[in-house]
Amino acid sequence: MAPAIEGMAPAVESSEGNNKMSKGYQYPSWKKKLRGLLVDNAELCRIVEKGIMGLCGVETQAVETGEAAVELIASGATFDLIVIDRFLPSMTGAQTARKMREMGVESKIIGLFASYFEGDEEDFVAAGVDDFKEKPLSPNWLVPILRELDN
Amino acid sequence: MEVGQMQRRLAEYTKSLFMEGILDAQFLQLQQLQDESNPDFVVEVVTLFFDDSEKLLNDIARALDQQCVDFKKIDAHVHQLKGSSSSVGAQRVKNACVAFRNFCEEQNAEGSLRCLQQVKQEYNLVKNKLETLFRLEQQIVAAGGSVPMIESSF
Q1: ipTM
Q2: Residue B101's domain is classified under what CATH number?
Q3: pTM here?
Q4: Do B87 and A44 count as a contact with CB atoms less than 8 A apart?
Q5: Fewest Cβ atoms closer than 10 Å to its Cβ: which of A11, A78, B53, B130?
Q6: Cβ-defined contact of B98 to A48 (cutoff 8 Å)
Q7: Is residue B128 domain-resident?
Q8: Any idea which architecture A34-150 has in CATH?
Q9: Nearest CA in chain B to A114
């Protein structure tokens, strides 16, 4: 069967209950148990991004604000990957990233934004973010990053 | 119409949405996220998109109608609409938002109004098409058939 999406393993079709053929796209499985934290205030984006991170094998917790994310970390939670939206209601994405770095977080932090305007990156870079992505978050983009984390 | 025909019709219809650029590969991701534990994921997310968008479009229209137009606020709404449309794969809506943001940056009310019309048009189009798509799926399921996965190499 031809690869359904460039860069992804070929689809394996199977029919399982529920009147819909279930997906069978082979995502790589990881040696380590990868844990992710997603910070996005927009509900729809959060749902989709959490799903995609899960699909890529990252066990993901999703929160709506920078404050909530910082609280989680303060309580001792650790993550391999942190994905933060640029625009959050009070503490911005950049401020959240900066706070996390100040707290000693060394995990990979990815900045997410819905649209890009020149200068947007500097904020994030200055805050200690490792990489950025314009939404949507895609498996093709994420998997190579995860592969690095897994090694 | 028998199930095989319905499935072919659905496949053709879906393909046309990609060919016309109304949907992009992100929509396929949504389908990937649908499974036995999440059987209505696509419809749920798309419904959320409809609700979100309608509210945002109304908010934008209201803001543009004010004596003193708050372009920052409008820009924030458009930014959010761009985020959600890109998350569901509504490509033309997303692209219309990009143009819109430029006019907001320039504080151009006339240009913004035009863009709003454009975004509304694209939104209504994708809404219409997706509702039709879901209807076609329901017909197949009602007839006892299953809805095939899409392959993307269009």
Answers
A1: 0.91
A2: 1.20.120.160
A3: 0.87
A4: yes
A5: A78
A6: no
A7: yes
A8: 3-Layer(aba) Sandwich (3.40)
A9: B83
